[in-house]
Amino acid sequence: MNITKPHLAIVGLTVITIILIYYYYYEIVVLQEKQPQPEQVITPENKGIFGVDEIYPTAKDGREWFINMEDPLNDKSFSITSDVPIVKNVEDGLAWSINDTQIRMNVGTPDNAQPWKNIEMTGYVKIRSVYEINQENEGGISSADSESLAPDLTWRARGGSHNNQNPCEGTALNGGIDVVNMEAAWKKEIWHTGGYTDSRGSAQATENPLLDRWIGWKTIMYNLDNNTSVKMESFIDDNNDNVWKKVNEVTDEGGWFANSSDEEFKSANCNRDKDYIITNSGPIATFRADNIALDFKNLSIREIQPA
After folding, report:
1. How many separate domains does the chain show?
2. pLDDT tens for each residue of 207-230
3. Domain of residue 27, residue span
4. Does 130 share its domain with 28?
5. Cα 98 to Cα 90: distance, rounded to the nearest angstrom
6. DSSP letters of 121-173?
């Protein structure tokens, strides 16, 4: 059969059309698809974007925040109280260093976003040195947010600003670890600063000194029983190998009272019971440290779906 020139032209046009359709779909649609914004990142099941294991899965449409390790301060949601400076770690290019008697690294809530409530907070730290307790005034310990003097790490949430001008905003569930004795515990703050409770859930987090080595620390909080109680859990990655061990858990169903006098507790006029259960959400979650110098990396907060 003879193939005429018109037939060849038709075949050629068909091939060219197929090539153009493929090019448009692959180059324009696939490769140039808009990338998600930081708080829209959907993490793989059981892993965060830093490769860190998740204890609980992210809630459906749940908010997620991951620190910008290239430039943490280039993030409107992230701030450091009193503008304490951070510097890139010259020994470990994947970490940042901070040094102060009061460290408060805050993650706020953008307009029209849900405040932090049922969350899993994670961070890795290397403690470089510990301040002597008698040095606390150098960091302005008489200023706002100064309840804890011991060298410790605390991840906290479910409140707003912690200052004397807005005492009723200063609610918090605080999951901390004492750097010297390696003991972990939870404290509740019903208002700032006269609403602190005694600690609960005290447990030995590790047998190994915490100085000059990387550890991971997680605090988790979520409501139970139709938002009438709250459960708190803490975990440690003791060997920096992404193996997480539960350290303690505490459930607040009432009866966990502020340790201030009745007169002091009522002086803030927050209209709360002295054993108020912090089931509320809050716009600010904070990675806190007192009286230590440290390196940090891979901070994250996620709204979770508890089992």
Report:
1. 2
2. 999 999 999 999 999 999 999 999
3. 1-33
4. no
5. 13
6. EEEEEEEEEE--GGGGGGGTTTSSS----SSEEEEEEEE---STTSGGG--EE
**Under 8 Å CB-to-CB from 201, ≥6 apart: which residues?**
184, 185, 186, 232, 234, 248, 249, 250
Per DSSP, what are the bridge partners of residue 268?
Answer: none
By C-alpha distance, which of 30, 29, 62 is closest to 43? 62
Give the model's pLDDT for residue 47: 87
**Tokens 């000059």 identify what position?**
212
Tell how far CA 81 is from the center of its chain.
15
Q: Are residues 29 and 143 in the same domain?
A: no
In this prediction, residue 307 carries a pLDDT of 76
Q: Which residues lie below 8 Å from residue 204, measured CB to CB, with a gap of 6+?
A: 182, 183, 184
Identify the pLDDT of residue 277. 99
pLDDT band of 21, cuts 50, 70, 90: low
Helix (H) or strand (E) run with residue 20 in it:
helix 5-23
Element (H, E) at 16: helix 5-23
Residue 284, classified by CB atoms within 10 Å of its CB into exposed (0-12), middle (13-18) or buried (19+), is buried
Task: State pLDDT tens for residues 125-145.
Answer: 999 999 986 544 333 333 345
Q: Within this chain, do residues 94 and 23 fall inside the same structural domain, yes or no?
A: no
Share of the chain above pLDDT 70, in %: 80
CB-based contacts of 17, cutoff 8 Å, min separation 6? none
Residue 32 has pLDDT above 50, yes or no: no
DSSP state of 48: -
Report the C-alpha gap between 125 and 110 in whole angstroms: 26
Tell me the pLDDT band of 43, cut-offs 50, 70 and 90: very low
- CATH number of the domain encompassing residue 200: 2.60.120.560
Instruction: Return the ∠ at Cα 245 (arms to 65 and 102), rounded to 5°.
Output: 55
d(CA 201, CA 233): 9
What distance in Å separates the CA atoms of residue 198 and residue 156, rounded to the nearest whole number? 16
Domain check: are 250 and 289 in the same one? yes
